[in-house]
Every structure is written in C-alpha cells, then in structure tokens.
C-alpha cells in the first residue's frame, strides 16, 4: 500500500505544480499541459492531460483530461462576470465530451448539504433545469428546447449507511443515462484557490476527496457510463496549510542563512511525508476533522452553485440561453 | 377511470369514517376495526384491517393493516410523553411485521426537505442511527447492540426528474434490504388530526399522497421487498377544509330548518364530488397548490421526526433503549 | 370593546371592497380611490386615500395613503418582469413620501424568520444595501452614490419577550433616522391575492397583523419619526377562506333558488360576525393557529423579498440603478 | 497605537498561559488563578481574576473575573454529561454575580446566525425560556416559577449598519434590565479548545472578538447595566494555527539541534509579532477572512447552544429544574 500523499489536493493542476517543484523540470512523461488566459475577465484555463500510466502514477490521478478554470472573480459577486465564466465552463464541457444528441444526463450532487463547504453538489442539483419527467402534456415546442436531464443528491455514507457509488450505480442501472456529471466540493493545497477554481475532468471522481470521505470511485469502469466530474475546492486541510506556510518561510529565509545549518536542512530536506506527519501529530488529535475555510463560505458556495448550474443548463439544453437562465432559473 | 375522490385523505381511519357515514352502518364487508385507548397518555390506537378486495374497493386503499395512533400530545412539547408514544409506536411496528433477526433495513424518507410540511421523511432519516456501513474496526460489543440500518432521502420527482420508486428500486436491488420502511407526510381530512396522528401500515405507500405528488406506489409488488409505511398528516387540502366545515354547518342547522327547503336540500344532497368540485372552482385556480397548516409547523415537524426516529431506533436495534436514544441521538 | 372584525384582512383595498359590498355604493365619505392599470405587465395599482376620521372608522384603518400593486407575475419567476415591478414600487414610494436628501433611513424587517410565511421582513433586510456604517475609508466617489441606510430585524415578542415597538423605538432614539420603512407579511381575505400583492402605506403598521401577533403600532405618533409600511399578504386565515367560499357558493346559487328559503336567508343574512364565529367554532380549536398558504411558499417569499429589496435599494440610493442591483446585490 | 497582538485569543486562560511562557513565571502581579478539577466528568474549571490595571495591561483584558470551563465532552453528544455541565455553568454564573431577586434579565445573542461558527449567540437566544411578556392571563403559580427574561439577537454591523452596542443600549434604555448577559462566539489560540471551552466573565465583551468584528465594547460603563459575557471559542485564526504549530515544531527539535544554529535562533527568537506578521503575509491575502473550524461545526454549535441555554434557564428562573428544561424546552 502506498503511503498517503502528504500534501492533500484534489486539483491535477496542483499535483503537477508539486511534481515540477520536486523534479525541477517542466517535462513530465505522460503529462501534457496547456494554458490559456483571458486577461479581460482575469480567467486562466489550464488543460492538464494525463496520457499514460506513467503520468498517472506520477500525478496520483487516473489517465484523463483535467481542465482547471481559475479566477478570483468566482468568489466575488459580479453577476455579469459570473455569466461569462458560466459560458466558458459550458464551452469547456463541450470540448471535453461530445454530449450525445438527445442523450439523457444524470447530474449527481455529491457531498453533505448540512455541512456548508461540502454542500456544493446538492446545491447545484437544486438549481438544475430538470426535465426527464416532463410528460406527454409538455408542448413539443418546449420539448425541442431541452434534453432529458435528471439530478440526484445521494447524501454521504455517514448519513445513509450506503456507499455513494452503490446508490448512483443502482439508480443508473434503472434510468440508464448516457452520461453522468458528478459535482463535488474538493480540497486544494493553496488557500488562494479556495472558491476561486473550477476543475472539469473525465478522469472520474477520486475517492475520499474534499471535505467528506466517499470511497468508491465513480468512473466509467465502476458505473458503466461515461463520467464527468466538476469540482470546486472549498477547503484546505489544516495540516496542509501549516506545512505549506512553513515551506514558504523556509524559502523566504534561504537567502540569508549560512550553509550547513542543521535545523534548516532538517526542515527543508525532511521528506514531505515525514514533515506532514509531524505536523499532524502536533496539531490536536481533533484536528483530523478540521479545515480552513473563508468566513463568507455560505454566500460564496451559493453563488458558485449558481455559476455551475447555469453552465450546465446552457451546455445541456440545446435551446436554453444565458438570458433564459437568468430570466427563469436564478 | 374512477373520478377523483372528493374528500382527500391518506388516513384509512378517515376513509372508514366516511364509509360509515355514507352507509350509516358500522359493518363494512372486508373491513375490520379495533380500538384501544390509553387514558393516561390520552392515546387512541385504531387498528383497521382491510381483509379482502371488496373492503379495498370500498376504502380506496390496498388490502393490509393500518394502525393509527392519535394523541394531541404529539403536537405538544412534553418530552416524557413523546418517549412513551415512541415506545408504543415501536411495539406496534413489531406487531405489524416480525422484523427479521439481523435482517438489513432500508429507511426511506419520502418528501421534499425544502417544503416544511413535506419534510417529515428526510428529517426522520437525518435522525436515524445508521449502521450498515460500520466496518471491521467497529468492536464486536457495539455490533451486538445494533442491526444493519441504512437510510435514503430520494427527493421528489419535480427536483430529480426521476420517479421516487425508480430510485428506491434501483438502490434496493443493489443493497438488498430485508425490509423497507418508508416515512411520508400525509394529508388528513380533519384539521384536528394534523400533526396529532401517526399511521403505520403494511399496505404500501399510495401514490400522490400528502403534500407532494409521487406516483409510483412503493409496495412489496413493485419493490420485491416487504414495505412498511409510516406517515403523519401535516396538512389539510384547502377545498377539503371548506367542504367539511360546510357539512358541519348544514348539520348544525338541520334541526331548525323546515322540511323541503331547496337550498338546504341542494347543499346536503349534492353529491360529495359535485360539491367538492364546485368549491375547488370557487377557490382561486392558484388554490390547487394551497394547503392549511398550523403556524408552528417548523418546530412541530422537528419534534414529530424525533418521535418517529426514536421509535424506529428502539424497534430496529436490539440493544438500544430509550435511555441510549436520549443520551446520544436526540 | 368592539367585536373582532369577522373578515380578517390587512389590505385597505379589501376593506374598501367589503364596504362597497355592504353599502352597495361606490361612494364612501372619507375614502377616495384611484386605479391605474399597466396592461403590458399585467399590473394594477390602486391608490386608496383615507382622508378623515369617518373614513378611518368605516375602513378600520388609520387616515393615510394605501397604495396596492397587484400582479400575478409577483408569484412567478420572470426576473425581467420582477425588475419592472421593482421600478414601479420605487416610483410609488417616491410619490408617497418625499425622501429627505441625505436623510438616514432605518429599514425594519418585522416578523419571524423561522416561520416561512412570516419571514418576508427579515429576508428583505438581509438583501438591503446597508451603508450607514461605511466609514472614513470609503472613497467619496462611492459615498456620492449611496445614502445612509440601516436595517434591523427585531424578532417577534414570543421570542424576545419585548414588544417590537419598544425595540424599534429604543434603536430609533439612538440612531435618529429621518424615516422608518417597516416591511411585514400580511393576511389577505382573498386567496388569489396571496403573494400577488404589495401594499405601501403611510398609515403606520397595524397591530396584530399578518401571521404573527405584534401589538404596539409603529406610527409617527409612537416612534416620533415618519413611518412607511410595505407589506405582502402571504396567508389567508382559514376561517376567512371558508366563510368567503361559502359566500361565493350562496351567490352562485342565488339565481336558481325560490324566494323565502329559510336556510338560504339564514346563511346570507346572518351577520358577518356571527357566521364567522360559527365557522371558527366548527373548525378545530387548534385552528386558531392555522392558515392557508401555497405549497411553494419558500421560494416565492425569497423572490418577493428580492423584488422589495431591489425597489428599496433603487429608491433610497441616488446613484444605484437596476443594473447595479442585479450586478452586485441579487 | 499599540501593535495588534500577534496571537489572537479571546480566552483569558490563554492570555495567562502566554504571559507565563513569556515571563517563565507563575506569578504575575494583578492576576490570580484558581484551578478546580472534576475528574469524573473530565471538567476543569479555571478562575482567572484580573485584580488591578497592571494585570489588565499585561493580560490585554479588563479587570474582572474570567471563569473557564474546559471539557472535551462539550463537543460530544452525551446528553447526561451535558446536563451536568449545564448545572456547573449555572452555579458558576451564580458565584460570579448575585442575580437580583425578581430582577429582569436581557440575554443578548451576539454574532451572525448566517455564519455557522458565529451563530452561537442567536442560537442560545432561540432556546431561552423568555417570560418578560407574560401578561395578566398567566396564572400566579406559573409566574412564581419564573423571573422576567427577555432575549435579543441584534445582528452584526455589516448587516444592520448599526453598532451592536447602539442597538443594545437603545433597547436597554427602554426596557431597563437589571443585568445583561451577552453570548458570543470566540476565537481561541489552541485548536484543542475549539467547542470544548466555555468562558464566563464580568469583564465585559471585548471588541472585535470571535469570528466577527463588533467594535463598541458592551460593559457596565457603556451600557449602564452590569454585563456578564458567556463565550465559546468556535474558531482558530489560520495564522495563529500556523504560528503555534511552528512553535511546537521548534520545541520538538530543540533537543537534537546543536547550539548556535542561525535558522533555529531566527525562528525561535523572532519576536512573536514579527513571525506572526510574516506568516500572515505568506498566507494568501484572502486569508484575512479564513478560519479553522471542525467539520461537524453545525451540529456541535447546536448542542453547545442547548447547554448554555439550559444553564441560563436553570440559573435565571427560580422554579425551573433540569427536568423541566428537558421536558419542555429542548
């Protein structure tokens, strides 16, 4: 069994940053990267491709595409910028996966709606334009605008006693969607990325991610249906924060230190896992359940759920535009 | 197709009251009744048995047992009386269905947690002692006290786009419970029964009941597993309330009226369905979505969810007592 | 002691409708009326002026202006229409009261945020652009756009043990606002007006209105500051609904009935108060706390709070437009 | 202007620990300490008395009594232990302040109910047995059991535009309480104290404490009424957590390091304020709004609010016992 990675992150972007720092090289076999900036909106889109098993092992993530959109505007409250970002997300979703025409989509909201930073998934589901159940009374003109979409918030295992994957698989076998889109709250390494980043990926949902502990992976292999994961980091693990800040401190002092300092060497050369373990020990045992989150997390999560739901509503329904979404769905 | 029954109720007890009034007879073929009173607690338990298809047709409910516990104390806040009622409910549940020793139970919380009077089911689920996922680390001593229990709140079709029955069936086929217990908010005919009545039944969950509109019946036939339904009426349909009050008014005036009055005759002899239809028309079209509910519905629903969850926790887990429930689960 | 008015309504518009029906006349001394329709938006604005004490006594409401905006679109979800309605409300507010330039405004959110149909006031407060506390760091350019606004949700007496009026008066004496705007949930007589009507008035807030029971009137006399009340009917009293429906039924049958019918005469000539009292008796004693409300009350109240907050934000802050409100405040 | 204290804590207990570490002495002029342990319940009660201005300056807290109750059981869910702790709190409250017989009490719930870790105060208010408004209809027998208690949750300045102190002072001048009890969420230095500590004090409420930023002190001087503050630390400031963990790390490595290490000396001798400032800079600018909190903060805050409300209900009402509280108020 591999040791738990010291630094906890669900963002492929951060896995790659760590790899680059370790190897002091931009080139990693099996990992390709592509960066695109929109200066006007202050948006950076990074496309990380893990192309083979070597890349997957190095990154600690399955082979696949990981598109990260970063923008500080995500945590602001400028609705027009949010609309623009929703449109970019909708386009990237289309780039990542050719949505089957008329295919039925199941949106799965992972996480616990009672724990604010873990409630992103259920909140997105609550804002989806759900249409699969529209029956024969619905006029053809309306039906032409929408595709069949369903949405499920299965809850978390501590509350249901059931693996989330079992619930999703059970329902998927009944309703047979052509694509599953799973929304989840993630953990980032950098505090600056909290609520300021969206990751879209076809690599499946990794177990034990984010705030919660969900163990069975949701992938095409386990569910028998293609899976796209959309996630936003909403927390940083407390030990990761301490460790990273210490790293920065060591870096900041590097210049002024004489060579051969034992303590400095100890700290900076200590293997990542060891130092992380030490920090976890020093933090209270209670810490296992602690995370770092911004004070305004309630309102930010609501807005993020709106952005993602709008992106999905535009991307999934052929005849629905940003204007419709604003007009009827906000 | 039979016309929609004029008076809307989900309580077998009220179906029988209506039948008795119509037929002016206590004896209805295929329907047996048994009443038990606990004067000290002010609790009345009525056991209605629908024993054959004739009874089922007359009652508009499937063959089965319908146990109704009535007590005004349910809507009060005396915790000790609530504990006693939870114990009675736990016993009745045991009378109704011999719980398989070690069998696994799936508790299903029907309804919409965002609509207060429809949130009973999800709230009961949130208070269940869920144990199915307890793994190998759990000490044997603890495991001896509990049976495997899981809990699912599937949401309502308007929000998921999926029939509730499809979700439950999909999950049940994966986790294979020995018994499903479905909790739901119901509609009563009499305002006095709101939040003051619990119905336990093995007749399955009727479609379109309570506040919401859920259509696929949850029964042993549809799910392949025995189903027990537990419900509490939390609303009265507005048109039912008007109609019933008018009935009472006519009754109150009967004595003083000369025979042969046209208007009186019209009102009192008008077929139930006709009068109900007229009232629905007179109420605003918007009315279709209106219900009558007490002002303190939020806190009452929370307490009712606690009583039912405690009853289930005691009934399902062999080693768990009222004291444990109070101590750890409230 | 005067008997409690049989029909319960907080809308001056409905008081006047009742007077007109009683007196079978459009002319009521001391009551003037003015109706304006916007066909495109489906909005009717009725301006009721109670000009003297005779009018006040007849109407059961203080001398003053009562502007009622009615539109079924209020309970819909078309954001553009909601914006137009917010603009109309902002204009009417300006017509009713010349806002003192640079004067400081205290917005008071009456009602109980834990009881959904009574939560309108606190929800409006939560959406206000509050600026009174902006200090010396705020740039002059920003300050030029806004006026000092503060917002208080005092709670209800059952929860605080304090008359709402005492709290508002105590705070007003400290912060000395130039105008108090009180937001409240009201009771209507007609189910069709629920969540489809806004009343703006300078007659003060009447005691015991809406869902709750708040007793000390909030008026210029009691608070020493001009008071504007903004209210939306969110419930109909259950007995009022029954009584009114019965009225309609009697009317509907009038044509076909022979003269001299005793029962018909009894019902139709029974004094309003008597019949209402009879209905209250026939409804369960518990009924005192019951009201009629639409199923989707949660989401409708949220949208209504947004419309009123936007109207206030535009009306109160000289440099804030609908676009700003949409962009930053929704 | 004095520099902001590097380590952020609202607990006098932690101020004293820091002083002791700095001065390497148990004796601090003007600060007395008294520790009491209840081994059975696992409760430690520490009474810190700041007796003169020298002590106040050293501690950074006003002259007064600061009683801290620590118990890991506070964050558990054992109701019987919670009852015992509520009884201890009730006794300590009586020790700290002789409650005036029949005097009227105003309980003030500070903080923002929309931000979970700041919602303690409003949640306690919601669970208080409020009696000031009970009128002449209340039987004398009931009145003999209770004292007049009122409760107010004024909100936070960012939402009201009004200093919390202005609201409390305005209301206090109207209703003239004999004692104000202010409940607030606090910040601790040690993660282990989060949700595991209650501080009761007559030193008034310090400005800018806890999660929020409330600036006008609530004291006998500002309000003209004695003030008791009850607080629970619910968060640790992120920079404080990093700094403290680093301290622990330096300590842990002290033994094995050769003397004269520059980096070690730099880190360990760097003045507290400097290092804290450096850490704040290294953490993201966004960090200013970040805090560390446990995952289950929602349910823990609810339970803590229950414990404190029960302690107050028992302490304030002469005829109310733990049993009554359980029976009717939970």
List keywords for this structure.
homotetramer; nine-stranded mixed sheet; 9 strands; disordered N terminus; alpha/beta; 330 residues; Rossmann fold
Summarize the structure.
The first copy, chain A, has 330 residues and is an alpha/beta fold. The first copy, chain A, has helices at 12-23, 53-59, 79-96, 120-126, 140-143, 157-160, 164-175, 220-223, 238-254, 262-269, 272-282, 297-316, 322-329, and strands at residues 31-38, 43-50, 64-70, 105-109, 149-152, 179-188, 197-201, 227-237, 290-294.
Explain what this protein looks like in three dimensions.
4 copies of one chain form a homotetramer. Chain A is of the alpha/beta class and 330 residues long. The first copy, chain A, has one domain (12-240, 288-329): Rossmann fold (3-Layer(aba) Sandwich), CATH 3.40.50. Helix content of chain A is 40%, strand content 19%. The first copy, chain A, has helices spanning 12-23, 53-59, 79-96, 120-126, 140-143, 157-160, 164-175, 220-223, 238-254, 262-269, 272-282, 297-316, 322-329, and strands spanning 31-38, 43-50, 64-70, 105-109, 149-152, 179-188, 197-201, 227-237, 290-294. In chain A, strands 1, 2, 3, 4, 5, 6, 7, 8 and 9 form a 9-stranded mixed beta sheet that branches. In chain A, a hairpin with a 4-residue loop joins strand 1 and strand 2 (43-50). In chain A, helix 4 crosses helix 12. Chains B and C meet through helix 9, helix 10, helix 11 and strand 9 of B and helix 9, helix 10, helix 11 and strand 9 of C.
């Amino acid at each position: 069994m591999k040791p738990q990675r010291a630094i906890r992150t669900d963002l492929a972007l951060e896995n790659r940053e760590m790899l680059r720092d370790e190897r002091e090289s931009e080139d990693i076999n099996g990992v390709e990267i592509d960066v695109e900036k929109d200066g006007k909106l202050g948006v950076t889109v990074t496309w990380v491709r893990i192309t083979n098993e070597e890349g997957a092992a190095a990154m600690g993530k399955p082979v696949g595409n990981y598109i990260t959109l970063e923008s500080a505007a995500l945590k602001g409250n400028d609705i027009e910028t949010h609309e623009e970002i929703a449109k970019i997300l909708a386009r990237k979703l289309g780039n990542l996966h050719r949505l089957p025409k008329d295919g039925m989509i199941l949106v799965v909201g992972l996480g616990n709606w009672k724990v604010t930073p873990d409630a992103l998934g259920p909140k997105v589901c609550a804002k989806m334009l759900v249409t699969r159940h529209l029956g024969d009374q619905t006029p053809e003109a309306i039906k032409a605008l929408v595709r069949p979409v369903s949405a499920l918030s299965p809850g978390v295992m501590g509350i249901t006693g059931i693996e989330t994957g079992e619930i999703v698989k059970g329902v998927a076998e009944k309703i047979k969607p052509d694509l599953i889109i799973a929304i989840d709250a993630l953990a980032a390494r950098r505090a600056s990325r909290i609520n300021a980043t969206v990751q879209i990926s076809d690599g499946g949902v990794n177990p034990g991610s984010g705030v919660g502990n969900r163990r069975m992976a949701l992938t095409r292999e386990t569910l028998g249906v293609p899976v796209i994961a959309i996630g936003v980091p909403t927390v940083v693990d407390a030990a990761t924060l301490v460790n990273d800040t210490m790293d920065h401190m060591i870096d900041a002092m590097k210049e002024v230190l004489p060579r051969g300092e034992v303590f400095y060497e100890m700290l900076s050369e200590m293997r990542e896992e060891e130092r992380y373990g030490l920090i976890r020990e020093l933090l209270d045992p209670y810490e296992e359940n602690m995370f770092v989150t911004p004070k305004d997390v309630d309102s930010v999560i609501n807005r993020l759920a709106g952005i993602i739901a709008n992106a999905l509503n535009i991307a999934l329904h052929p005849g629905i535009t940003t204007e419709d979404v604003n007009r009827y769905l906000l």
